[in-house]
Design a protein that fits this description.
Number of helices: 11
Strand content: 5-15%
CATH architecture: 3-Layer(aba) Sandwich
Oligomer: single chain
Shape: globular
Radius of gyration: 19 Å
Number of strands: 4
Mean pLDDT: 90
Largest sheet: 4 strands, parallel
Length: 272
């Protein structure tokens, strides 16, 4: 296959209703047009094998952050979704808890996560998982990884190039101000920015932006249990702790919401 003129990249930030949106995006293409690489570990394998093959697919989608863009010969049309950061963090914890219960494996070397009574406070107090959720959305846009390099954990052990592990054990190497400014600058250049809390309107805007058929019956896929989905079920201290970890994400979410509102009003000026 030869290089395509301009690709579409869905920069899928986990737990932002992206699995549902991805189904809509991929339905617009033939299976052979969709890059099979969708996570950082697979991307690292492609980099070692032949990075030029990435340029042959019209659409790429997955959990590969901004790192993927530096590997493409031509800037793609980027799509992403952002979510209110406290809600995203709660959803991420629920998802991890469910995965632990299903697999029975000890995650992050911390057996506490296998306890059925594990709480989100355990998640926040354990350094690797706290670092994982700290400004996770900002870091998806602002933190770049060299996939030819071997990263290590706190004990110097080599890490598999998985996004969660890289975010948990590495520093972005930028000040908070630089990190947020980089994330905002990159976000402002994207073709489409959606908001999870306005999913249906985001879907309308996505289809209008790309001239795709509107699919309003898109399912919400990969949704975690709602058992901790309401902030009212958490203590004020726990919510404050999550907010402390996601201060930059909150700023980015506000910025993304402004972008979304502006773009939506341009495409649907008469929408109530």
């Amino acid at each position: 296959m030869s290089e395509v003129a301009q690709q579409i990249y869905f920069l899928h930030i986990p737990k932002t209703a992206g699995t549902s949106l991805r189904k809509v995006i991929e339905s617009q293409f033939r299976p052979e047009e969709i890059c099979p690489c969708s996570v950082m570990q697979e991307l690292a394998n492609v980099v070692r094998r032949d990075v030029s093959e990435l340029a042959t697919y019209p659409v790429i989608a997955g959990h590969m952050g901004y790192t993927l863009l530096s590997l493409l010969p031509t800037p793609p049309r980027v799509i992403t979704m952002l979510r209110e950061p406290v809600a995203r963090t709660i959803s991420r914890f629920n998802y991890m808890r469910q995965q632990c219960a299903r697999s029975g494996r000890v995650p992050w070397g911390h057996a506490r996560f296998l306890d059925p009574d594990v709480s989100i406070n355990d998640f926040l107090s354990f350094e690797p998982t706290r670092r994982l959720i700290t400004n996770f959305q900002v870091r998806n846009l602002a933190q770049d990884f060299d996939l030819t390099k071997t990263y290590t954990d706190f004990d110097g052990n080599p890490l598999m190039p998985k996004m969660n592990k890289l975010f948990a054990y590495t520093s972005p190497g930028l000040s908070d101000r630089e990190l947020l400014a980089t994330a905002k600058r990159r976000l402002a250049s994207f073709e489409f920015v959606g908001i999870t809390e306005r999913f249906r309107e985001s879907l309308e805007l996505l289809c209008s932006t790309f001239g795709w058929e509107i699919t309003m019956n898109a399912p919400f896929l990969n949704v975690s249990s709602p058992s901790l989905g309401l902030n009212s079920l958490l203590s004020k201290q726990t919510i404050a702790d999550i907010q402390e970890c996601t201060l930059l994400d909150a700023e980015l979410y506000k910025f993304a919401t402004e972008i979304f509102k502006s773009n939506f009003s341009k495409h649907f000026p008469l929408h109530p």
